[in-house]
């Protein structure tokens, strides 16, 4: 196949180093070589000639050192202007386009590029930008003088590699992301030691859930740090049985009311319902659509109470269809009253614990602890469900009691790990939108090490960030990282060249 001719450049430019004298001996530098290349820009292709200089003094320590220009139109080993690279990142990150769509979009603007080249440029940008953003975040933390970190992991399947993310909660930015092949205590402890060394300031507190591997790793790697357990995870654990019962109550109410003839008549205009019945049907439909937000909002209890209030308001209505519907709803509520009472009692135990942990009086940690324990001892459950919930409360409180109250003595320590949870949720949504994949956990583990940093960059800041990146070393790092993914069974895009290569030659540096 004949080789395609190079495009005709619209202009030619020559780029030289700014210095003319040798930094070591002050001898005038001479030309060593030059390099020509065609650089694609949005104005059109430009022929760039880069001049490389050297010191002619054979006794100078910089005699064999090649002096390059500080700035060029395109990064090394690439033939695309930085504005083109910035457009690739914006189309991928913010317009959520696939690599093929980006290649077609750039082709319309006169840039010849394949989707594979787009993918390679984007992934190299991820590797470099993540390093630079992490470096900027660490500078901000060192100015604060101390660090409060949160730690959590993303694992697609049990037994596979997982991505662990460490966030600094004062600046609310990730500071470390690492792929762990197994979630052992030693592996997590080694990661925490690396984070401590990287920060260079004391870690005064760690916020996490009560996962035992994290608890033991923190005790092993950061014995001087306070380990605050997340209150949200504590409430969620003690309310699981109440949430299941409430979910079952909501399911029964919805099923029974939706099967009623007069409710279906109110939703079907062909059956010619009265105007009042239509309005009542819409109210009931809105009530049944109530969604839960466990463990903070219980849909079953809310639906029951709102329906009971609706029945009380409609008892004196003279419309026959509405009366029949109200009577049948009242019968359903009376049949489920026993289950409602059990769920309500259990939820009241949990809500009282939430009020104690909210600490509106501003009590010290030991006082909040004493108040919580006194309340748990004073509870006298009447139903079997409440007894089961109280059993869970006792079990988790005994297990977590030593790590729930640091937040009340130091206002810098947050009560929950929700900042980390929201970061991971936002991170997964970001990847689902970018890739179009419904199940994104596997991709999170592959490229999340870098994406977790990059997703905070605003579109207008991308070009400035590209100017600060060191593109010289990215090619080798990119090849090593792709080979590392292949070595742990997560090859970057299932390419045969990665699956079949000898990974040992690339794994000399830790990725």
Secondary structure blueprint with pairings:
Layout lengths: L10 E5 L14 E12 L2 E11 L27 H12 L5 H10 L6 H30 L2 E8 L7 E7 L4 E8 L4 H15 L3 E6 L3 H10 L4 E4 L1 H8 L1 H19 L2 H6 L8 H14 L10 H15 L6 H16 L1 H22 L6 H14 L5 H17 L5 H4 L8 H18 L5 H14 L7 H7 L5 H14 L8 H4 L12
Parallel strand pairs: 1-3, 4-7, 7-8
Antiparallel strand pairs: 2-3, 4-5, 5-6
Helix pairs in contact: 1-3, 1-18, 2-3, 3-17, 3-19, 4-5, 7-10, 7-12, 7-14, 10-11, 12-13, 12-14, 16-17
Key terms:
511 residues; alpha/beta; five-stranded mixed sheet; three-stranded mixed sheet; 20 helices; 12% strand; disordered C terminus
Largest sheet: 5 strands, mixed
Molecular shape: flat
Overall pLDDT score? 86
Distance between the termini: 40 Å
Enumerate the strands of the largest sheet in spatial order, edge to edge or round the barrel.
6-5-4-7-8
Order of helices and strands: EEEHHHEEEHEHEHHHHHHHHHHHHHHH
Unreliable segments of 5+ consecutive residues: 494-511
Strand percentage lies at 5-15%
The beta-strand count equals 8
Q: What structural category characterises the helix and strand content? A: alpha/beta
The amount of helix comes to 40-55%
What would you say this structure looks like, in words?
With 511 residues, this protein is α/β, with parallel strands linked by helices. The protein contains 20 helices and eight strands. The chain has helices at 82-93, 99-108, 115-144, 185-199, 212-221, 231-238, 240-258, 261-266, 275-288, 299-313, 320-335, 337-358, 365-378, 384-400, 406-409, 418-435, 441-454, 462-468, 474-487, 496-499, and strands at 11-15, 30-41, 44-54, 147-154, 162-168, 173-180, 203-208, 226-229. Strands 6-5-4-7-8 form a five-stranded mixed β-sheet, with helices on both faces. A three-stranded mixed β-sheet has the order 1-3-2, with helices on one face. The radius of gyration is 32 Å and the shape is flat. Mean pLDDT is 86; it is low at 494-511.
């Amino acid at each position: 196949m004949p080789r395609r001719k190079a495009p005709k450049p619209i202009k030619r430019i020559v780029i030289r180093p700014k210095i003319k004298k040798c930094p070591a001996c002050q001898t005038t530098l001479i030309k060593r070589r030059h390099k020509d290349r065609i650089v694609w820009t949005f104005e059109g292709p430009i022929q760039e000639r880069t001049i490389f200089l050297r010191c002619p003094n054979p006794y100078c320590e910089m005699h064999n050192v090649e002096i390059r220009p500080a700035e060029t139109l395109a990064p090394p080993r690439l033939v695309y202007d930085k504005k083109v690279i910035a457009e690739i990142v914006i189309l991928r990150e913010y317009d959520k386009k696939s690599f093929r769509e980006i290649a077609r979009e750039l082709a319309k603007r006169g840039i010849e590029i394949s989707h594979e080249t787009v993918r390679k440029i984007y992934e190299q940008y991820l590797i470099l930008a993540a390093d630079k953003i992490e470096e900027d975040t660490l500078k901000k933390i060192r100015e604060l003088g101390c660090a409060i970190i949160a730690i959590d992991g993303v694992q697609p399947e049990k037994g596979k590699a997982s991505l662990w993310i460490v966030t600094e909660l004062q600046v609310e930015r990730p500071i470390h992301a690492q792929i762990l092949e197994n979630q052992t205590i030693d592996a997590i402890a080694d990661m925490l030691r690396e984070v401590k060394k990287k920060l260079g300031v004391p870690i005064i507190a760690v916020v996490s859930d009560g996962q035992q591997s994290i608890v033991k790793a923190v005790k092993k790697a950061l014995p001087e740090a306070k380990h605050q357990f997340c209150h949200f995870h504590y409430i969620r654990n003690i309310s699981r049985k109440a949430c299941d019962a409430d979910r079952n109550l909501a399911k029964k109410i919805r099923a029974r009311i939706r099967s009623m003839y007069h409710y279906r008549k109110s939703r079907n205009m062909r059956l010619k319902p009265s105007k009042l019945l239509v309005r009542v049907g819409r109210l009931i439909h809105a009530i049944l659509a109530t969604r839960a937000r466990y463990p903070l909002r219980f849909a079953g209890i809310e639906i029951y109470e709102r329906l009971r209030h609706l029945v009380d308001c409609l008892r004196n209505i003279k419309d026959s269809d509405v009366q029949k519907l109200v009577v049948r709803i009242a019968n359903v509520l009376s049949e489920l009253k026993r289950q409602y009472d059990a769920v309500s009692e259990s939820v009241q135990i949990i809500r009282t614990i939430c009020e104690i942990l909210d600490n509106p009086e501003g009590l010290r940690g030991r006082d909040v602890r004493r108040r919580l324990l006194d309340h748990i001892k004073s509870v006298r459950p009447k139903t079997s469900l409440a007894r089961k919930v109280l059993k869970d409360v006792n079990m988790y409180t005994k297990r977590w009691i030593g790590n729930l109250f640091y937040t009340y003595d130091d206002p810098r320590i947050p009560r929950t790990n929700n900042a980390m949870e929201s970061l991971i949720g936002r991170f997964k949504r970001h990847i689902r939108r970018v890739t179009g994949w419904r199940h994104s956990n596997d991709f999170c583990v592959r490229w999340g090490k870098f994406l977790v940093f990059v997703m905070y960059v605003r579109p207008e800041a991308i070009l400035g960030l590209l100017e600060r990146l060191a593109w010289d070393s990215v090619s080798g790092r990119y090849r090593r990282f792709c080979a590392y993914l292949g070595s742990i069974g997560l090859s970057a895009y299932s390419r045969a060249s990665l699956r079949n290569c000898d990974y040992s030659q690339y794994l000399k540096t830790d990725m």
